[in-house]
Amino acid sequence: MPEPDRQPTGERGLWEVMEPPPPPSHPVADPARAHRSAAAARPLRLATWNVNSLRARLARVTSWLARTDVDVLAIQETKLTDEKFPTSAFTDLGYQVAHVGFSQWNGVAVASRIGLEDVRAGFPEVPGWGQPPIAEARALSALCAGVEVWSVYVPNGRAVGDPHFDYKLSWLDALRGYGAASMGADPDAQIVFCGDFNIAPTDDDVWSVEYYANLTHTTPEERAAFGGLVDAGYTDVVRPYTPGPGVYTYWDYTQLRFQRRQGMRIDFALASPALAARVTGASIDREERKGKGASDHAPVLVEIAEVGEVGGAGELL
Asked: Which of 38, 180, 211, 260 sits in a 20 to 30 Å window from 21, CA-based?
């Protein structure tokens, strides 16, 4: 959830980009990309986790992977460049991994032990940020056993009226556009947008409506932007298995928020209809928010069943 404390340019909310990032190592996603086949998809355990610095949390992440039998993990806020990403820590556990990171801010990755193909960084018409505006390392996708898995880290927004708030809404609208175009290209596509959306879509998703009344993450504009993805056909597949209120994925480090159960639900897996029909369970691993060196987010897990070789999308064996 947190955004970095960088030096402003003089215009409120804008930050100077001292050096342009290197060209992305992966092409931009195409809504008409091939191979998103329901019949090809196998059962899998999917997870998403904002680790808030992979360098600081690497031992926790690899230990968690080793004991949870996760097939695909979408990671946000690695806060690493591609050159400094610890690839071997994942390959040693049997995972292929793709990452996009330009600096010590943002950074997203997908780790998979069931295949990692057609890796794409970003999506069409994604807005940039900074002076000059650049596309940040906030979205990465790959095909994992026939499923298009996205790791997304939505801009924070910082404050209502800040330019970063407008940037957040524009970023979400571009993501919605990609999602809608993908569904138009293939209604049976297996797609899931995983990650930190920095939005609590309902009042049940925050510990105090009054506390957040004048803050970001709960404004009508942000909730409408989240709703745009839902209207495009993507379902929050975790909520049916983790009903609220009082069920969260993020707790601020300050003021004993975790101990007081004062959190927010801002991490999601939004699945296309064909994939949502295969979901058989979901959970939030609150235990991983405990202890020394924990991220301020908890991992979110989704169980996805196999699809038969014969029959339409969503027909379970």
From this structure: 180
Neighbours of 163 (CB within 10 A): 16
Q: Name beta bridge partners: 300.
A: 48, 284
* Of the candidates 159, 165, 174, the residue with the CA atom closest to the CA atom of residue 214: 159
Torsion-angle region of residue 79: left (phi > 0), alpha (psi -120 to 50) or beta? left
The CATH number of residue 113's host domain is 3.60.10.10
Question: Quick check: helix, strand or coil at residue 119?
Answer: strand
d(CA 282, CA 237): 8
Q: 276 — phi, psi (to 5°)?
A: -60, -35
In a domain, 21, yes or no: no
The answer to whether position 309 is within a domain reads no
pLDDT tens for the chain, residues 1 to 317: 656 444 333 333 333 333 445 555 688 888 877 555 544 557 899 999 999 999 999 999 999 999 999 999 999 999 999 999 999 999 999 999 999 999 888 999 999 999 999 999 999 999 999 989 999 999 999 999 999 999 999 999 999 999 999 999 999 999 999 999 999 999 999 999 999 999 999 999 999 999 999 899 999 999 999 999 999 999 999 999 999 999 999 999 999 999 999 999 999 999 999 999 999 999 999 999 999 999 999 999 999 998 753 344 444 44
CA angle in degrees (0–180, nearest 5) for 106-204-173? 45
CA distance 98 to 31: 20
Q: What is the number of structural domains in the chain?
A: 1
Examine residue 38 and state whether it is found in any structural domain, yes or no. Answer: no
Residue 30 lies in a domain: no
**Count of beta carbons in the 10 Å neighbourhood of residue 78:** 31
Backbone angles phi, psi at 66, to 5 degrees: -65, -25
CA distance 317 to 313: 11
In the numeric block, the tokens 């235990």 are attached to: 287
- How many C-alpha atoms does 86 have within 13 Å on its Cβ side? 16
